[in-house]
Amino acid sequence: MGTPNLSDRIEAVEASKSVELASVIAELRRSGEKVIGFNVGEPDFPTPEVVIKATQEALEAGHTRYALVPGEPFLREAIVKKLKEDQGIEIGLENICVSNGSKQVLYSLFQLICNPGDEVLVPCPYWVSFPEAIKLAGGKPVFIPSENGDLDFEKLKALKTDRTKAIILNSPNNPSGLVYSKELKEKVVNYCKENDLYLISDEAYETLIYDDDKFIGPAGVADPNLENTLIVQSFSKSYCMTGFRLGYVAGPAHFIKGMNKLQSHVCGNTPVFIQKGAEAALNNADAISAHMKEVFSKRSGIAFELCKEIFPQTPRPQGAFYLFPKIQEDLLKRFGSDEELAMHILNEAKVALLPGSFFGMPGFLRICFSTSEDEIRQGLKAIKDCL
Ligand SMILES: Cc1ncc(COP(=O)(O)O)c(C=O)c1O
Q1: Most buried pick, 21, 44, 185, 348, via CB within 10 A?
Q2: 198 and 74 share a domain?
Q3: How confident is the model at residue 19 (pLDDT cuts 50, 70, 90)?
Q4: Confidence band (pLDDT; 50, 70, 90) for 206?
Q5: Is the dihedral of CA 269, 273, 276, 280 positive or negative?
Q6: Domain that holds residue 208
Q7: Are 248 and 163 in a shared domain?
Q8: CA-based nearest residue to 102, from 199, 208, 234, 230
C-alpha cells in the first residue's frame, strides 16, 4: 500500500528548469551572498501608476464577481481596436479570449488543437514552456534545429509531416533577442494557409524592438482576418504586469468558441478588476512603451558591447531583453557544457544566468539585461573576471 502514482502525462513533463535554478539562487541569497540576477525574464520597472489606479478603482467599485468567460466586452473591444490600429487586423469580439497570462493561453491552445501524436513545429531556440504545453496536450514538439538562432524556412518545410498541426513563431524571441524578418513571417503564414496549419504567433515582446521599425506580426503581414494565425499576447512584459496574470489569444471564431468551452471548466474567467487594469494599460500603451523602450534600448547597447568582450560571438539583440552569446570553443572545452559554465559563473562570479540548453540550444547562454545599468556593468565584469 502506498501513495498512488501521478499520471503518465504529468510524469512526461519537465519542471521549469529556470524555476529550479531560482531555488538554488534563493538559497545562496539566504546564506548572505549578493547574487546579480541575469536569469529572470521580467521587466524591473514598477507596474505603471495608471494601471494600479484603474485596478484599485475597479475593486472599490465592486468589480469582484464572476464575469464573462472570454473577458468583459470593454477589454475585448480595446484589444480589437489595438490589433486594428497596430497591425491592420480586422476582427470582432468573438475572436478574442482573455486568460490568466499567456502561459494559460498556450496550455489551453494545445489542448484545443492537438490530438494524441499530433506534431507542432518549434524553432530552436524556444521559450521553455512551449514543448511542455504541447506534451501536456498529448502532442509532440518537433524541433527545428538552428546553428545561430535564425529560423531556416527550408528546414521547417522538411520537418512537416502529415501529423503537423501547427508552427510556433516567437518574435521578438526569448531567448535569442532576434526579430524575424517580414519576408520570413510572410513565407511562414502563407505556408500555413497552403497546408491547413495553425500559426501560433507569440508576441509577448512586441513593444521591445530596438530598431526604428514598428512591430508587425505574421497576421499583420499576410493574415489580417486571422484565418490561420493564433496571436498569443501577454500583458506581463510590455506593461510590467507579470503578477497580474493576464494575456489573451486572438484567432478564428470557431477556435475561440473552443477556448471558451475549455476555460469555462478551468478558471471560469479572469478577474474583472485585473481586466480594468489591462484596459488602462492599452489606453496608455504608447507612453508606457516609449519609456520602457528608451531604457531597454540603452541597456541593450551597454550589455551588448560588454558581453562581446567576453563572448565574441554575441549577436546584437534586436528585441526583448536578452543577449544570447555563443560560447567559444575553448571555454566550452574547459567547462564541459553550457550548464556547467553557468554553474561556475553562479558560484564564482555570483551572477545568475541560464544555459542555452534550457532553450534547446546547447553551447549558448541567455543573459537577461532587465536590471540597472550598474548591475549590468558589475555582473558582466564579474563574469569576465571569473573566466
Ligand atoms: C515568449 C514568452 N511567451 C509567454 C511568456 C509568459 O507570459 P505570461 O506572464 O503572460 O504567462 C513568456 C514569459 O517569460 C515568454 O517569454
Answers
A1: 185
A2: yes
A3: confident
A4: very high
A5: negative
A6: 64-284
A7: yes
A8: 234
